[in-house]
Design a protein that fits this description.
4 copies of one chain form a homotetramer. With 434 residues, chain A is of the alpha/beta class. Chain A folds into 2 domains: 2-223 and 339-428, 3-Layer(aba) Sandwich (Aminopeptidase); 225-336, Alpha-Beta Plaits (2-Layer Sandwich), CATH 3.30.70.360. Chain A contains 12 helices and 12 strands. In chain A, the strands form 2 sheets. An 8-stranded mixed beta sheet of chain A has the order 1-2-4-3-5-12-6-11. Chain A has a 4-stranded antiparallel beta sheet with strand order 8-9-7-10. Chains in contact: A-B, A-C, A-D, B-C, B-D, C-D. Chain B binds chain C through residues 259-260, 262-263, 265-266, 268, 271-273, 368, and chain C through 259-260, 262-263, 265-266, 268, 271-273, 368.
């Protein structure tokens, strides 16, 4: 069976690369992946998957970090022109992107795979490999600089292979294409919509340039719990020479908040972090600044520690604003939890790879980043299921860091990973008990 | 008459110097001037003045910056031993010092003079003139370093001269010996007790080493309105290595308050000042500081501006404390207002001096300090009366700044000023209408 | 003669309004007034004035707050297309705008008038009077929101009237059209170029909506000395979750600088101000901010006090940056001085108006803003000459504040002021001695 | 042999308790343990140990946190009166306290034990057990509130037992009585004096109220590396109302330093801490504070991290001072390192106890405090030797925290620990190789 899977994956290698390049050329930011989601939905539909989109897979009030409504509508209308006949696109109106494709067979066991689909607000640099091959981003300030384009292609590859071995699979399959992973904004709303309620096993993947194509690492995890939030301090302007006392200085409030948020006591129970990544205040040199916007994030070794940081930051922001007669508006823009791959499942997958698949198993240091698949992993594990994240090598042969305009990958990783996931699903379906 | 006054003043010159030296040797801080007040009361009593002391001249709840009760009682008990027979001392128990001596004759016009009587918490330096003459402070940490000892002697000199010319005086006389001027704490409680309700003219004096003995300046004023207040920020301690997150850091709150209080916007309507003169926080190097004490003062070109600073500071303190889960206790320790000598009265006095008295009229720059006679001046002026403060030269012939352990005066200023005030009162009594 | 001037001014009333509206429609920011300056130069040229432009009237290295070279060149090239034949425009290339027009007659006395010509970076609001009449700004983010369009028209009106009475004028005339007044950037470079070296009298005007058209106020002044400067704090980025210790946090440095700059001690010698009007820092929520830009201004009752603030701010910025291992780059963007209208000249002008001109003399409170004509006034006064600024009423009949998108004026003020200046020049030329 | 040791320890039980109570009654702070050291030296001398004291065991320039010379001399002179005949005391003059007692027998192996001897600046509370028994501290502000009095008695008990089994011991013995452990000030100077150069095994103990008498825990460690330092910021005073601009405000500098030191970035390589435990600034409410004193400590999971914190703090202090034209003086007051008990030695000791000694082995969580025996442990381990710290239960049966005035111990722990150490030394001497 694993040989059959491998052969199938090689057959679709070029097609998957084409898909990845098309997605790369048309990047869409979180909650606006209208084109991307429509293409995925149509693709899965054609293969016979049961498609769910829109509010049924994204809980409206649990979406985090959603952009301005008008901006979302503009993008929706633009994409609508190209997909007039789509049965799915209209359900995404208002920013309800993402797709869930189910292959339900009445089995006891459901195995889900999750692929994230959004791009980053990064300008692609001119000297990238994509320029040469003609698939550079056509959107000036957007780029798939984190490999989610490859994740989509991998997911669609899986959808084909799975269908080809469907009769031999003793489980239901659920393919989750998640919007708005960047800024850890999307997973929460999907969990809240209940799409993981019936899942026993969850598999996630992420390309990594720390490994070469052909190398994999099982059992990623240890992500920081994190909260992304924006604060807007609102004061009153005044002429700085004429009547400074009439102003309510939002910048002094913000400066006070910045210093004091970084002074939140270190916690004895584990690692904590805080960062005010951006601050923008004021309108003119000779006007008391009446508005200051801060983009902030907290992190913690676990969610209790992240909450500790968040609560302390909130108290500081509120009091810094009041100190100057200002008000402050705090808005959660993203949230993720810490999580770990299930130990038994990790060992099982390593054994499967070792015995059956032509990939090299590696061990890397755990990243100290955050990934909102953690929210899904925790949901599945809390329900008694198991979850795993696998890092798949994509090093293009030169230095190429994610989240930069120069990011590139070795496209060989795509079909290989489609095959890997299919093989793992096949074996996991055979495990005696959850 | 002026010649008669001058002769009398020279006759009592030595006696007044002795009084000043005795007071200098036994300095008493604000609200504990038990010995000083008793001596004054007995002196005036003997001359036939009607004496009022205690709660009748000091409104209990309007006293500012009163020390610890126990401390006051200790000092009271100590002084009590030396004045067992005094009819007045017992009324001062609890910190109700100060004396008012009235010479009421049923006249329409009442002229008051005010003399402040408290010493400073300053250690007298060994090389002072007082060491040589044997009248150095016997109290280690207290010293008459602002000349109030001379003011008392001047006031008692006035009481004698006035009595000697009483039949020629067409007015009632009120001699006010005010406690707790340092830190602008005492005047307010006397005003509130109503002792200025019947006053038409108020005269105040202050020695100044910017002028030589024999030089005077009429019409001082333009004092800053000011508020003296203490803030105590109360948090919670914790071991700084073991569990820093359990602490509520009063020092971080205090540091935030200090920086932000100095950042209060400059006011377009006039001069403002703020100073955190002292800060003391913490108990040990390895403990999160659970207590921070701040001694603060605000000033303003007028009381509206002082209030502006005070309110802004209060808001900053409260929010700085809350920011760290601390509380703050703010206590007003002193308060004074801005005030100006009445213009007509100043010109009248200058004319009297110019024509009748052997003193040189000078003009200096206005000080930017604060003096709580301002509270009394404003009360009298608000009631339609007039007020004046006169600076009297006391330069001892070498550099000698007030509020330092080296402060010294030329004692010639004492009897001269007693004479000056008596002459002025005599002439002011003759002014046609208030 | 005053009647003749008045009649002439009314004759050109409509023409001047047209000029003002054309300028209003095509606003240009400081150092890029290419179209504006060319129009002025051609206008004066035609009337027979001797024209000087470019580096001869603007000292290259003394220009403050000059924009990016590329941006200036773009605007220059655009304007060049419309004025191919101009003898003057090419000399302005690189941002050397402004015009000086001389009517030299070998007289001993030279009377100069100054008009500022630049627009503001403000978006004109749609409901303005200019929309209705069809002369709204065609440049999205630029607007004559401070009346300099009217000043230009007034100046050109003066140039005509002066020429018509030239034979009766016993003086040389110099018309100065100054670039880059906003942000007090242009006057200094003109003074340094020497254009005021031969000036005995300098007259300036400014429209004010505090007065109605027909009302004037002589002798404005008391402007704050001010320095406008930008600071860029440069640190190093780092991932805020992964390796925060590798960053050099420019935002923490900036927050420290902001708080401490506002804490610079109030100065006993007079009014001081400081404002950080804008702060922009950071690149992304999860990156230690490596760059912070601050737009700052200091002010003082005189230039010594402004220097005090500037030096203190500079020290704070440098040490705040070093504290975090960052560097700081400080750039002066504008500078002006305090100045006062010459008292005798003010009284003389008031007398001329009172006796000869149908305008109402008013007295307002002195503004606490800054105006860089101060640099020119001080230059003339230091050389023994006299200077005056006159406020001319322009209230449009509804609330309309300068430096807002709603700013509007009563255009009646234009020809009236052209007449007023011409009359004053005529009389000043007759004063016996400078 | 272990039975013999146990019996001997019980024989001296009461004597050791008497010693402990005598030391408790006469506590001495670090670097002034003149009486304590003299008693120890005489005691060991009498038992035949070779005594070294003074500069030979304490490297003069490596002493940290030494008090004022005059204060030390006063205490020395006072103690001198009671020990006129001592051969050792005079060598301690100037603050060179501590004692090393050697039993050298020409063996290859040297086993050292370390006991710390200083008291804390804490006032003993009246309701303590010591009051009842009549051995409360006779020094108002000093108390053995950390059990070092017991440590001394334990050490002297060891010295007796060891001597009684000396012929059976196949090793040299070194007893180290270390001064100034509180504030981690003394160990460094002893290491630098070379007293550990010949040591193969080092044993340390500390009483702990987390365990009952009879319970022990082997292998303490994981102490934080730490630096204790004081900073004095020196500015210039000025009258806060009159001429605030003439001051250099040390309190504003200190507040800036406090906030920014707490903002030092969290380090990705491990735990870090900082605390400003005490701040005291200013002289009077109306004077710009010219002096601010800060007591600070940094900690790190290892000494690299502690250095990171220290260097960042230093940079912040220097720049905060310069920002206000102040200077800063930074003085290291104590320093310790992280360290861990040797694993093999710990297991060996546990086995010895388990098999031979009537004490209960416990496991507690590692403390996050600091202990300067770490400096000695690291020295021995770096030289190829082994080291261990053992916690010995001393819970008195009620809540009684160290470093408080209520601290008390169960004195049963004393002779038991003397026996324990003797037994361990006996067995360690028999280990095949170091």
């Amino acid at each position: 069976m694993h040989e059959q899977i491998r052969e199938y994956s090689e057959k679709i290698r070029n097609k998957l690369i084409e898909i990845r390049r098309d997605i790369h050329k048309h990047p869409e930011a979180g909650w606006t992946e209208f084109r991307t989601s429509t293409i995925i939905a149509e693709y899965l539909d054609e293969l016979g998957y049961e498609i769910t989109v829109g509010r049924d897979i994204v809980s409206e009030n649990d979406r985090l970090g959603v952009s301005d409504e008008k901006y979302i509508d503009e993008l929706f209308n633009e994409v609508s022109k190209d997909f007039v006949d789509s049965r799915y696109l209209h359900k995404m109106e208002g920013g309800f992107t993402g797709v869930v494709g189910d292959m339900r067979k009445g089995k006891d066991r459901t195995i889900a795979m999750r692929f994230d689909i959004d791009a980053l607000k990064i300008k692609e640099s001119g000297d990238n490999i994509s320029t040469e091959k003609g698939f550079s981003s056509v959107k000036g300030n957007l780029m798939h600089a984190c490999g989610h384009d490859a994740h989509i292609a991998i997911g669609l590859g899986v959808s084909e292979i799975i269908r080809s071995i469907n009769d031999d699979l003793d489980c239901n399959i659920k393919l989750i294409f998640q919007p708005a992973e960047e800024g850890v904004r999307g997973a929460y709303a999907m969990v809240k919509a209940g799409i993981l309620d019936d899942v026993d096993y969850l598999l996630g993947i992420h390309v990594t340039n720390d490994l070469k194509a052909g190398e994999v690492e099982c059992g990623l995890g240890g992500y920081f719990a994190t909260t992304k939030f924006d604060a807007e301090i609102i004061g009153n302007p005044a002429h700085s020479g004429g009547t400074p006392e009439l102003g309510n200085n939002s910048l002094l409030a913000a400066a006070t908040a910045v210093l004091n948020m970084h002074s939140i006591p270190r916690h004895s129970k584990g690692i904590t972090r805080i960062n005010v990544g951006m601050l923008s205040a004021g309108t003119d040199r000779n006007v008391i600044p009446d508005n200051a916007k801060l983009n902030i994030e907290t992190r913690g070794e676990n969610s209790e520690l992240d909450e500790y940081m968040l609560n302390a930051a909130r108290r500081i922001l509120i009091n810094s604003a009041e100190m100057y007669g200002c008000t402050v508006d705090i808005k959660i823009m993203g949230k993720s939890d810490t999580s770990y791959s299930s130990k038994n499942l990790t060992e099982y997958c390593e054994k499967v790879i070792d015995e059956n698949i032509d990939l090299k198993l590696c061990r890397n240091i755990p990243s100290l980043g955050s990934e909102d698949i953690a929210m899904m992993m925790n949901k599945v594990q809390d329900d008694g299921g198991k979850a795993i994240v696998i890092g798949v090598g994509s090093n293009p042969g030169f230095k190429s860091r994610p989240h930069t305009g120069e990011f590139a990958i070795d496209e060989e990783c795509i079909h290989k990973t489609s095959g890997l996931l299919s093989s793992l699903v096949y074996e996991i379906a055979k495990i005696d008990s959850v």
